[in-house]
Structure formats: structure tokens, C-alpha cells
Amino acid sequence: MDLGFTLIAEAYDPAEIVEQAVRAEEAGFDFVEVSDHFHPWVSEHEHSGFAFSMLAAIAARTSSIRLATGVTCPFIRYHPAIVAQAAATTAILSGGRFTLGVGAGERLNEHVVGAGWPAVTTRHEMLREALEIIRLLWSGGYHSYDGKHLRLEDARVFDLPDKAPEIAVAAGGESAAELAAELGDALFATEPKAELISAYEKAGGRGPKYAEVPLAWAPSEDEGAESARRLFRFGVTGWKVQAELPNPVNFDAATALVTADHLREQFGCGPDVGRHLEVARQYMDAGYDRLALINDGPDVDGFFDFFTKELQPELRTM
After folding, report:
1. In sequence order, which residues have a C-beta less than 8 Å from that of residue 132 and are 6 or more positions away?
2. Separation between Cα atoms, residue 296 and residue 284, nearest integer Å
3. Eight-state DSSP code of residue 185
4. Catalytic residue among 10, 25, 33, 37
5. Where in 171-222 does DSSP place strands (E)?
6. What's the CA gap between 14 and 198, in Å, rounded?
7. Domain Luciferase-like: where (predicted)?
């Protein structure tokens, strides 16, 4: 079981994100993942730094902790050739510690370039083509690609790491889990769904299974639940909403009736290690073996201290 820390780039400025990654390494985490957004989710979020710049800075400030995007949409806002280059460079700068997490994206981030927002079936087709392009470019030499949606013309990534980064493919349904098995090296999920792992493994997937575990450490359960409501209420809307709304103001409207009690149902809130373990166990029991802990509580330093002294020793023995 590997334990990671989720760097919430929408809630903290880029310099603070880098410092949190340094503290995560000191606290004993195995990896960090950083969200790759152009816009934040809700109005309480006031940041959204460029993921690959932050990863480069983290690579320079750390020595052992692994790094990942959680996750990058490798088409529309980016062309997959740019993602292939960025990921290869990050892998080199980190000494091979980088994993490229990819997914089919959200309108929130991708609409900004004015290229439209395709239906989900089209986005999955585009994701497939993007992964094929990235794999081509990582194989070395010049390549062209003429797909249904994406094209590549006589391109080469000159700086490649000795070993290509792992690709973790985000899945909310079985078709995406099958794509993760076919073109990825790992599965990435945000819910404790055992059926995603079943679909992944049935399709031949044998790699790691990442999942984000929602926690909100605070001195009291009420403080933790309220902080989670402020920072993560968008998460209760589900992917059919999260993928479709264009701006934070829309998510504010969609979550106006979300209460702290709604978050309390999903999150480990407050100081009780037992509740945090209960939430994490759902993902472990479902079969996920790389847990990225989200802390949407109000005190990051307090969470790191809690993790080091109380949570980590218990999780490592489960």
C-alpha cells in the first residue's frame, strides 16, 4: 500500500503547493499528485497554478517522493504532443519519479481555448487518440498521426527519460477502465468502486490502482465538515455535473444547497483517527493500492502532524 498526498492547486498558491510537497516528503508520504486545472472549482478557491511548473519546482526541492498529475486532460486545452514533451521533461527533472495521470477532462478547464466541448463518447475517442500519440512520441524518432479527431505532423520529442513515465488513466465507468488497461499502466479513480477494478483487470490491466480518499482533519468534526463544504462541495455533484459546468460561478449555483452534513457523509472529518481509517478502508477493501489522501481541512500543518503521528502508522498496518 502506497500513501500519497493530494496537492489542491485550486485552494493554495503555487509557492505553497511546492512547500506542501516538501512537507509531504518529510511526513513520509510515498507520492504527491497535483491537480491540472485552468480554473478553480468554486469561488472560495482563488488559485490555479500551472501544474507542470509546480511539478518542476517540486522535483528540484525533493529527492525521493514520487510525483503525478491528478489528472491532465491531454487534448483540447493541450495538444498531446505538448503533454508528451512536458511529461518527458518532468520525468527527467525528477529522476524518473513522475507518473502522468490523464482523464477525459472537464468543461471548466477545456472550454477556455474556444474549441468547444464534445460529448463524452467523443472525449473518450479523443483520449484514446491522445494516448496513442503520446506513446508514439515516447518511442523516439519522428512521427505523424492522422486520427479521427487529432493529428500530429512530423514531430519528435528530443529529450526522453531512460524509462517512459507510467500513465494512470482516470475512470468513472467501465469503458474508461478498459481503456486504462489497454493504453495505460495504472488506473485512477475518485470513488471506492470495486467494479472499476474488475473491469480494469478483466481487460488485462495489471498495474497500480490509484484512488483519492476524502479527508478533512480539524480540531473538531464540525470544523472539518464545514471546511470540506467550503472547499470540496463540488465533489458531491457527481461527474455528470462536474464535467459539464464552465466556471466557478456555475458550481457555486449548483452547490448552493449543499450542507456540511452532506460532506460529513463522505469525508473523514475532525480529529478521530478511527473515522479517517473508516473512509480509507472503503477504498482498500475495493482493491485500490495507492491512496492519495485529500485534506480539505483548515490546517495543513495540523494534518501533516496528524498523519505522521496517528494516521500513517495505522494505515501502514492495514
Report:
1. 145, 147, 183
2. 20
3. S
4. 37
5. 186-189, 209-216
6. 37
7. 12-283
Catalytic residue from among 10, 106, 129, 221: 106
Closest CA to 288 of 183, 214, 145, 187: 187
The percentage of the chain sitting over the pLDDT mark of 90, rounded to a whole number, equals: 99
Interval 108-167: pLDDT, tens: 999 999 999 999 999 999 999 999 999 999 999 999 999 999 999 999 999 999 999 999
Q: Is 37 assigned a catalytic role?
A: yes
- Yes or no: is domain 2-316 CATH 3.40.30.10? no
Residue in 296, 293, 298 with CA at minimum distance from that of residue 28: 293
* Termini Cα distance of the chain: 9
DSSP type of residue 157: -
Cβ burial 195-215 (10 Å sphere, 16+ → b, else e): ebbebbbeeebebbbbbbbbb
Number of C-alpha atoms within 13 angstroms, CB side, residue 48? 15
- Chain-centre distance of CA 92, in angstroms? 20
- Cα 71 from chain centroid (whole Å): 4
Global pTM value:
0.97
